[in-house]
Amino acid sequence: MRILVDTSVWSLALRRKKEPNSRAAALLKEYIEDGEYICIIGIILQEVLSGVTSGKLFNQLENHLAAFPLVAIEREDYVSAAQLRNDCKKKGVQVGTIDALIAAVCIKHGLLLLSVDKDFQLIANASGLNLIDLRD
After folding, report:
1. Residues 84-101: pLDDT tens digits?
2. Would you say the pTM of this structure is higher than 0.85?
3. Could you tell me which CATH number the domain at 2-125 has?
4. Residue 48's CB: how many other CB atoms inside 10 A?
5. Distance between CA atoms of 68 and 10, rounded to whole angstroms?
């Protein structure tokens, strides 16, 4: 599998003081241990690192995330994200700018999205976005 991991899951897995009790975090750990292709995009990296006031923790998170490939975003991806957002709006689905970009990149590169953000299910219902099913 080729998986893009959203900020919501990285936050559960990396920024909690105790062991996360989350299916998404457990799946992420399993995928990493199984050698699945896990990647991120720049805005997700920025979001995960934002608000980390401890320099030590910031460096630990940055070093940990450096192990995962960063998918390059090109001009056409922003155009695709805008079109996706417009298409979703026509179907009655409100999509944030960043979420549209994440979804567009996943669609373009054939990536599954691992996220606990419920907005992505709405996007998936209105587009070609493929999500990892988190239902038990």
Report:
1. 999 999 999 999 999 999
2. yes
3. 3.40.50.1010
4. 24
5. 12
